Amino acid sequence: MIWNESIECASREEMRKIQSERLIDTVQRVYQSVPAYRRKMQEAGLVPGDIKSVDDLVKLPFTTKSDLRDNYPFGMFTVPMSEIVRIHASSGTTGKSTVVGYTRKDLRVWAEVVSRTLMMAGVHREDMVQIAYGYGLFTGGLGMHYGCENIGASVIPISGGNTEKQLQLMQDFGTTVLACTPSYSLFLAEEMEASGIKKEDLKLRVGIFGAEPWTENMRREIESKLGIKAIDIYGLSEIIGPGVSCECEFQAGMHVNEDHFIPEIIDPETLKPLPEGAVGELVFTTVTKEGIPLIRYRTRDLTRLNFEKCQCGRTLVRMEKCKGRSDDMLIIRGVNVFPSQIESVLLEMSETAPHYLLIVERENNLDILKVMVEVQEQFFSDEIKMLESLRKKITHKIQSTLGISVEVKLVEPRTIERTAGKAKRVIDNRKI
Ligand code: DLL
User: Fold this and answer.
1) Environment class of 107 (CB within 10 Å of its CB; exposed 0-12, middle 13-18, buried 19+)
2) According to the model, what pLDDT value does residue 380 have?
3) 326, 352, 374 — which closes off a domain?
4) 304, 368: one domain
5) How many Å apart are CA 42 and CA 38, to the nearest integer?
6) Contact indicator for 144, 208 with CB cutoff of 8 Å
């Protein structure tokens, strides 16, 4: 089943026409209402009239996370706050989060694109969908929620965590669709095994997994342990949240909802567009968003595009599974973490040196973040009590900045390796 056949199966010419009309309108709107965009376009010697079709997209300047930080919190919004009905946020590179706002129409578009992705995954109104993505500032929970309601499926808005209850409701309510991060689905599978629940005891059929990178090997493991079809869903808060793209039942790349979000692939070094099929950094331009439209937003995710028609009948361009990032962002238990966030916490404290090492492990399918921190000479003491209270203080500060738990280990001054070149701050031991 296809949710919106005329769009999802449109010819390339039809799609380009829709994109061009919407792009022209978006560029006009951002130029008029957002000083930051007007300035950037003026610097590039552009006026909105120069953008006549999608072919002119490449003329426009890029937008990055730092533009959002510089205009924190609402400076990139194109409408007055009275039009904004929802706010979400994700991690910024330092202390300030990346904030996005939605108008009523934006929420309708979001429900529409998530509805399409659910149908791609083979979900329908008879399904019972357990949403174990976090609800709150993170876009995962609420984003999936309204899409599910829109197609008429029954939603269990359980949010993340509380594993015992997840398993209980899965059995009692007969959950058929599980939506969560792929690593959490494996954790659930392991807990099932430990508590003697067999996959045959459940009615699970489909999993909609995203918000973090995962491999084909992980897919095979999840599919066999839970007895389901595991579907990859992609999105980012800046563009809308989940629902930017998703796999169909053929699991051969994620169909991008390109009538709303136009993708491009660029070389992250030269910033030049790459030829069709090449791997590079994914860039999106939103062409229907009202609250915070983004022009050529650099996602930092690396992938490639495939414009061939899919076996499912959809013509929406497909993006391959993400192959990594062009920056140092980590995703720990679905939460985006920038090493610079930890650095800024340490810089604020007099007891610590800004020398640290992050070690990421996956134990029982759960990500563990260990932070080794160097203590300043004058604060380093042999007294265990004092060091322990300092460790607790640092742990608390880092946890409240990142929003996830961390294990902090204090180390003696000058023990973290110094390098002449780029410091190696992260050791990621997860096999993903
Ligand atoms: O993670 C939105 C989302 C929620 C997507 C639920 C899918 C399901 P952010 O917190 O802003 O938004 O993080 C966005 O997460 O730039 C990617 O690096 C990564 N990411 C998201 N989906 C995938 C995926 C949500 N399927 C960042 N594969 C993005 C790999 C993903 N990475």
Assistant:
1) middle
2) 83
3) 326
4) no
5) 6
6) yes
**Helix (H/G/I), strand (E/B), else coil: 315:** coil
Same domain flag for 218 and 86:
yes
Q: Is the pTM of this model over 0.85?
A: yes
Out of 306, 326, 346, pick the residue that ends a domain: 326
Q: Give the residue among 320, 70, 312, 331 at the shortest CA–CA distance from 182.
A: 331
- Interatomic CA distance for residues 281 and 265, integer angstroms: 5
Considering the domain architecture, whether residues 161 and 90 belong to the same structural domain is answered as: yes
Q: Beta strand 128-131 with 154-156: parallel, antiparallel or unpaired?
A: parallel
Strands (E), 132-213: 154-156, 177-180, 206-210
Tallying the residues shown for the chain, one arrives at: 432
Gyration radius from the chain CA atoms? 23
Q: From the alpha carbon of 335, which atom of ligand 1 is closest?
A: 10
Chain segment 49-85, per-residue pLDDT in tens: 999 999 999 999 999 999 999 999 999 999 999 999 9
Note down the domain range covering 24: 1-326
Structural element, H or E, at residue 234: strand 229-236
Q: CB within 6 Å of ligand 1 — which residues? A: 90, 133, 139-140, 210-213, 232-237, 241-242, 299, 301, 322, 325, 331, 336
* SS3 label, residue 280: strand
pLDDT in tens, 294-304: 999 999 999 99
Q: Whose CA is nearest to atom 29 of ligand 1?
A: 236
Q: Are 361 and 111 in contact (CB under 8 A)?
A: no
